[in-house]
Specification:
methyltransferase, alpha/beta, 7-stranded mixed beta sheet, 3-stranded antiparallel beta sheet, methyltransferase activity, single chain, 8 helices, Methyltransf_25
Length: 276
């Protein structure tokens, strides 16, 4: 690689296949670079010990998708793609007995450590890939993920099966992703983001490449039906699909999510599934 190539800097976009290792490596590269800015920009909205499922601000305190806090109190919970572990910390504050986070990005986990120290609410967090969880079978009562991991892996059914593996029978998985309908539209919070430009049925991955052609950001698209089939293939039973509405008075723009688009289009899909 020549000296003027900035490794990790996105130079172009491709729509092409990206395998499990390339996808995880791209996520790691991306978040090593993006974590500081992400936490500076969104940390206030996420709150150090807060659990929001996406840019609409759906709060687990109101939604209770993981189940009633009383039932979770003695539980062991895993958060996948935890970032700075804000959701995990909220669970700890609710009295959940044990919460563990995993994330592929070391820098995101350094932010988790920093907030642990600042708040005194500590969450053990491990650098790991959602596609290969370093935990024993049936070792968690619940697994959660707010936009962490699942949108960034090529084989959703395999990653969901991995989450199902570590869940005990009767345990619950809840995860949020960009709503699949968003795939059709430019990632733009303005009027331009209201005109469909891509096919909803185009499953090719969105890949940003650096000057050397290496993937530095990868996101995989699935339709709603693909997600439902992946959940079933993982041996889980889908209980709910929550599509949070944009709340009145919520003016915050987050990337392509805005009040303008939020009034017209779903932005987030939250899937709730149980291991039988
Ligand atoms: C949009 S952030 C969400 C983080 C956090 N849940 C939040 O709400 O701020 C996505 C996170 O997923 C992590 N991630 C991406 N691919 C992953 C993978 N294969 N395994 C584990 N974490 C992954 C990223 O490092 C990043 O921290």
């Amino acid at each position: 690689m020549s000296d003027d190539v900035d490794p990790g800097a996105a130079e172009r976009v491709a729509r092409r296949p990206a395998g499990p290792d390339e996808s995880a490596r791209a996520s790691r590269l991306w978040w090593e670079r993006a974590a500081d800015e992400y936490q500076a920009e969104h940390g206030g909205f996420l709150r150090d010990a807060g659990f929001v499922w996406g840019p609409e601000g759906l709060d687990e305190a109101d939604a209770g998708l993981l189940g009633p806090p009383d039932r979770l109190r003695g539980a062991r919970v895993l958060e996948i793609g935890c970032g700075a572990a804000q959701c995990s910390r909220w669970l700890r504050v609710q009295g959940v007995a044990e919460v563990v986070g995993i994330d592929v990005s070391h820098r995101q986990l350094q932010h988790a450590r920093r907030i642990d120290e600042e708040t005194g609410v500590r969450v053990p967090a491990v650098e790991a890939d959602a596609q290969r969880l370093p935990f024993a079978d049936a070792s968690f009562d619940a697994v959660c993920s707010a936009y962490g991991g699942f949108p960034f892996v090529p084989d959703a059914a395999a990653a969901l099966a991995e989450a199902a593996r570590v869940l005990r029978p009767g345990g619950r998985l809840v995860f949020s992703v960009s709503h699949p309908l968003r795939w059709c539209f430019p990632d733009d919070p303005t009027e331009r983001g209201l005109t469909a430009e891509h096919s909803y049925f185009d499953r090719r991955a969105y890949v940003e490449e650096d000057a050397a052609g290496r993937a530095v950001y990868v996101e995989h698209h699935r339709t709603v039906g693909d997600w439902v089939r992946a959940i079933a293939a993982a041996g889980l039973v889908l209980r709910d699909l929550v599509e949070p509405e944009w709340p009145a008075g919520h003016d915050r723009v987050w990337g392509g999510w805005s009040p303008l688009r939020g009034r017209l289009l779903p932005g987030t899909a939250v899937f709730c599934a149980d291991r039988p």
